[in-house]
Amino acid sequence: MGTVAAHELRKSFGEVQALDGVTLDVPDGSFFVVLGPSGAGKTTTLRAIAGLERLDGGTVHLDGRDATADTPAARDLAMVFQSYALYPRKTAYENIASPLRARRASSGEIKEAVQKVSELLHIERLLERRSSQMSGGEQQRVALARALVRRPRAFLMDEPLTNLDLKLRVEMRTELTRIHRSLGGTFVYVTNDQVEALSMADQVAVLREGKVQQVGTPTEVYERPANQWVAGFVGSPRISLLACHAEGDRLVGAQGWSLPRPRWTTAEDGRPLMLGLRAEDLSVETRSEASLPGELYGFEPLGDRTVVDVKVGEEMVKVKARPSVTGTPGEQLAVAVDLDRAHLFDAGTGLALSEAGR
Asked: Which of 24, 220, 287, 336 has the fewest Cβ atoms nearer than 10 Å?
């Protein structure tokens, strides 16, 4: 297994700048997730690393060696696509064995390798079936086995769980992390699903419009977003954002509310800011010296919890509460704020303000 390093990748398709200086450093043995919305450049980044896209600029290093000019075959990387791309007339065994046969491995070596990977993925019973006899989840496991059996330098996975139903996606997330631990391999995994990214990754790179917005652990990306866009993209429900400015020891909202200034911020008076508040850091059931006056707008029951929508001035704030929470739309209430977990962003640049003090 090995390291993957992409430096200043650039690629345009006509007037569309798909990659605009993408730099990623994937450590050996890590589960590295590239997260972003559709059109962010995720798949193009993966194809560039694999050698399937001719770059306009930048370099790709594999195990410390410049592989930018190498063919896809010479890079020794295995790709797993969103579409399973199995050979329909071949059995699962033959599909899994195909990359080893291409390398002219002996029948004994092939049998041993297929047996090991099928046990790892719990698909021994599928080996004699063709793809038409398998469910989507089973086909995905066979496609994964075909990639894993090669023992390549790294595995590149392009939204491999997208076509599965929710239950299977949850199961396969667990399976992929187990497989990663078992193999100790390097995984580069592309997704637009933040739950996949936060639950599986060692490191997450967040892409937007061909640019890297932030790289960090899932905890860092969620709790210390580099900018307002990352804060809004990562997290469910979406972070609530309120316009405000610092004034002495207070934050004063554009809608007239006021909160104590968080002890960790150094924003100068009058600077236009955006206050970011995550739903789990707010409460309508407890009282606090730091609270926002609001009007109950509605409820979103989600089984294990209820999201309460509260209007603060003209802005909507979402609050996670117990399933048993009650109230009448239109009633006045106070939203308690945990300021130690709040976020502040420059309203002009969108960049997070220094949080070194907390």
From this structure: 287
Reported as a single tens digit per residue, the pLDDT across 120-131 is 888 899 999 998
How close are the terminal C-alpha atoms of the chain, in Å? 38
pTM: 0.89
Here the tokens at position 115 are 């047996």
Domain 4-226, CATH:
3.40.50.300
In this structure, the dihedral spanned by the alpha carbons of residues 61, 67, 68 and 69, taken in order and rounded to 10 degrees, is 170
| Number of alpha carbons in the 13 Å side-chain half-sphere of residue 68 | 13
Residues 6+ apart with CB under 8 A from 250: 258, 259, 260, 261
Model pLDDT for residues 330-342, shown as the tens digit of each residue: 999 999 999 999 9
Q: Which residue has the tokens 């390291």?
A: 3
Phi, psi values for residue 204, rounded to 5°: -125, 130
List Cα–Cα distances, 21 to 7, 31, 67, 311, in angstroms. Answer: 7, 22, 18, 40
Of the options 2.40.50.140, 3.40.50.720, 2.40.30.10, 3.40.50.300, the CATH number for the domain spanning 230-346: 2.40.50.140
